[in-house]
Amino acid sequence: MSNNGSYGNNRPSSGLGGSDIEYPSDPASGSFFVLHDYKKHEDLKQMLDMNKDSVKLEAMKRIIGMVAKGRDTSNLFPAVVKNVVSKNIEVKKLVYVYLVRYAEEQQDLALLSISTFQRALKDPNQLIRASALRVLSSIRVSVIVRIVMLAIRDSASDMSPYVQWNLKHAIPKLHSLDPEQKEELVLLIDTLLSDRTTLVVGSAVMAFEEVCPERIDLMHKHFRKLCNLLVDVDEWGQLIIIKIGLCYARTQLADPNLQVPPPTYYITLGFNKPVTFCYRQQTLNQQRISRALDDVTNECCPQVVMSVCRLYHHVAPRSEVGVVTKSLIRLLRSHREVQSVVLNCIASMSLSRKGLFKPHLKSFFVRSSDPTHIKLLKLEILTNLATETSISFVLREFQTYVSSTDKQFVAATIQAIGRCAANIREVTDTCLDGLVAMLSGRDEAVVAESVVVIRKLLQSQPARHKDIVGRTARLLSTVTVPQARASILWLIGEYCRLVPHIAPDVLRTIANTFTAEQDIVKLQALNLAVKLYLTNPEQTTLLCQYIFSLARYDQNYDIRDRSRFLRQFVFPITNDSSLAKHAINIFLASKPAPLLKSKFKDRECFQLGSLSHYIDTRAAGYHDLPDFPQVAPDPSVRDVPDAPVAVEAVSATQKSGHTKHSFFKLQY
Amino acid sequence: MIHSLFIINSSGDVFMEKHWKSVISRSVCDYFFDEQRKVGCPEDMPPVIATPHHYLISIHRCSMFFVAVCMTEVPPLFVIEFLHRVVDTFDDYFSECTESIIKENYVVVYELLDEMLDNGFPLATESNILKELIKPPNILRTIANTVTGKSNVSSTLPSGQLSNVPWRRTGVKYTNNEAYFDVVEEVDAIIDKSGSTIFAEIQGYVDCCIKLSGMPDLTLSFMNPRLFDDVSFHPCVRFKRWESERILSFIPPDGNLRLMSYHIGSQSVVAIPIYVRHVVSLREGRLDITVGPKQTVGRTVENVVLEIPMPKCVLNCVLTPTQGKYSFDPVSRILVWDVGRIDNTRLPTIKGSITLQMGVQAADSNPNINVKFTINQLAVSGLKVNRLDMYGEKYKPFKGVKYITKAGKFQIRM
């Protein structure tokens, strides 16, 4: 697909397009000359060998263009790698980009560039040192592990915080390249964590999370400091710190919901500036953590809001979780994709924490302009939130939705009505009436879905709804959707004793059209025949026989199988068949009513907002949240006598006159 | 985390790919295309697709799909947020984000992507910092670079990145010092058939354009800050000051920013500034709609546009408006009536007939109306800025506040 002409505009209009050098013809169109492959990119090689920086730059730009389009330019590697020594920073940068892409495939040649990086690591310019470290660690060649290790160690003691900041990615990269270096890296991370600069600590936690998240013991000393730093690190760092905080709380603190007298920690928060955990020394040994999760603005990043929400959901005392609601609702105005993820989480939360979202019920009302998957999620949430008081409201909304043009949505709405009816006793009758009214509608899909839902509802209390069973029977002549027809037949069969006059007639109708029916309907027709034969043999024996002989020669083997199997119950070969004796018990046993429950019920085992939670299967690399310990481990491990001083020092040097911090100081 | 990024255009070509770790073949996008074939329109595309070995997380913006490939568990919102950030950055750099713009500037795009993500984790996403690392292209700079041989890539570290106010550059200088504030309120509402309000709330923003020299420290106060239900701020705002005094105190970044966004609704009553009277019957093929203002405190309602997505069975509409223009798109079946401003003395109406496809049953339901409007010089919630003070600098800035009310997701059910 990449070879079509739409990529003809390979020569960039920006850059040096206007300079006076004659370039050879565009190499990107070289795909037409597959035969001359050995000559491919020859011109680019020449350009790279020239002395002029501007020509080299032009060549590199074209190469990057081809890389971006996913074309193979690996044969240019020797020509490109030479230019890693170029003084021109833009050429250098593009060479770096190229190197990172192809070094893995051309390991031997990539080694040629290493000495240049080693020199660049000593460069006086911190930007160059940092980018050299970045690229060196990105070259996934196992021979250079020692060199990268050295570079990382040097950079860890670098004076520039920017270089140290870049370490956050170098360490995990080395770890994934050679896991045996872990011991040494962990030591390094530990020293970095003790650093006093926000930038460095922010990057150290990232490396920690990637390399050794299980070494939670390293965190004891730094935990309080991290909590205080939370406001100052960038949003991506915040995410990591919150994640570590979650793990830490689950392993090192007792479950706040289980403790009868005041929990050992509680949470006081205004939900408005980045998340902060604060600690207070309450009594000598008892530690009270108050967590100030503040301002997770949506400008900040929806994911931060989501992480805080996850943290609250999994570790906060029940009474405190409410603070996240408003922020979650706020995210609903964001991009469609964000909405989808957030609604997914709300749908899950609304099952266990109904009260949280009840005041915001209206925010989940569906607009016709929403995409279908958003509509379905909103519907799910509305159903979960509906209570006796709000049900009339919700049902009125549902009524509007039913007349929508979006068929999938209409079907889901009807199911939602069914679930409401099943969950809330007061409205069961109203809902049933509504659904039955829908049966006379003209829209097939609506009718079909209604029948299915009615069937599920009737099963829980059939005796009261004799007339409804009768009405559904009459529909058989008009409804054409197989699922609905099958449901009707099953319903008649199951409650044939309630409608003794109608049932045989239904069987007659279906016998007439049997050959033209869908398989699913045929199976139910067989069922109905058996059930009627068992309850009312005088009227239906012949009909039953007729249907069975039709089924016997059906094209579908499932149906042939089924008829052969059922035949043993009604027309046994031998007279003393024990099967036939139990036929009534087998077919007309009372069946438990189906439970109409939320799809989100079984998602609760996953962490809120995680990929696994969203796709509802365990994603690769997903770790279960550890359970709270039975007894909280000794809190004194977190005591660091000088920690608050350190934080004050940082904030004093960093943000003079920034009032945000004075608040946190007050907390000690 | 994020292994690779593929950008796919509307015709289904992967026209750019970028790998941050080992290369992943673009054939992984086939799963994406499969899914795309299943759903009709791009809006219905699920944001996350699970394939046997990869997870594809995509966003659809500017009629392109940005597909990120992940291998392991990662918060989906994190990836989505990052992708949106990427598009925002492109928007910011090239002033629009289209396929041809990206293709034209693939070098800058590639450098940007390289700077924004390292090893699959975000590195520098702050647009101010990026702009100093990689200069945005413009004609003047292109010419200058050609002549002087300079490059777009900075060779020094951006000044702000390590400072304590990372969002503001040092040494900003203007000859005219100005600070403009726009209070924008969007009314979200669902109005039902009978004209009663089912749901209404206000989403407000305070956007500003601040061109002040040096390091100004601003405070902004409101006449009635009690109105707010829920507020969120730009990171530069000192939150504690807001909590204790209800004052916005901040050192602003240079240029445009969204200082705060707020939400008014659920508890308070929201004034609906417009009403629509409608008689639409698809079965009889009749349409009659009148629009009028209400509760607008004497301001005129402007830029009124009614948008009606008709069901598939509608072939054409023949209508006569008393004011403005209407159009019916036979492909998307959207009827748009561009009303313009509403004159209180003569209310705009549109009347006429609808042609239906022969032999097709008209749907039971009527379509919905999406309404757009703006009202200048009015914040519908009644919010007012009290005063703006500046500390830390000696000069006297020029200050201005503007109020606008707009329709957000304003929907009328018929």
UniProtKB/TrEMBL annotation, chain A:
Record keywords: Membrane, Protein transport, Transport
Keyword Transport: yes
GO biological process, one term: intracellular protein transport
Subcellular location field: Endomembrane system
InterPro entries given in the database record: AP_beta, AP_complex_bsu_1_2_4, ARM-like, ARM-type_fold, Clathrin/coatomer_adapt-like_N
Domain Clathrin/coatomer adaptor adaptin-like N-terminal: 39-570
Gene3D superfamilies: Leucine-rich Repeat Variant
Region (Disordered): 1-21
This protein's GO CC annotations: endomembrane system; membrane coat
A Pfam family the protein falls into: Adaptin_N
An example Gene Ontology molecular-function term: clathrin binding
Compositional bias ranges of the Polar residues kind: 1-13
Stated family: Belongs to the adaptor complexes large subunit family.
Protein's name according to its UniProt entry: AP complex subunit beta
Organism for this UniProt entry: Laodelphax striatellus (Small brown planthopper)
From TrEMBL, chain B:
Domain MHD as annotated: residue spans: 176-413
Example of a GO cellular component annotation carried by this entry: Golgi apparatus
Cellular compartment(s): Cytoplasmic vesicle membrane; Golgi apparatus
InterPro entries for this protein: Adaptor_comp_med_subunit, AP2_Mu_C_sf, AP_mu_sigma_su, Clathrin_mu, Clathrin_mu_CS, Longin-like_dom_sf, MHD
Gene Ontology BP annotations: intracellular protein transport; vesicle-mediated transport
Topology in membrane: Peripheral membrane protein
UniProt keyword Protein transport present: yes
Gene3D superfamilies listed in its UniProt record: 3.30.450.60, Mu homology domain, subdomain B (2.60.40.1170)
CDD domains: AP3_Mu_N
Short name of any one Pfam family annotated for the protein: Adap_comp_sub
Keywords: Cytoplasmic vesicle, Golgi apparatus, Membrane, Protein transport, Transport
Family per record: Belongs to the adaptor complexes medium subunit family.
Protein name (record): MHD domain-containing protein
Species name: Laodelphax striatellus (Small brown planthopper)
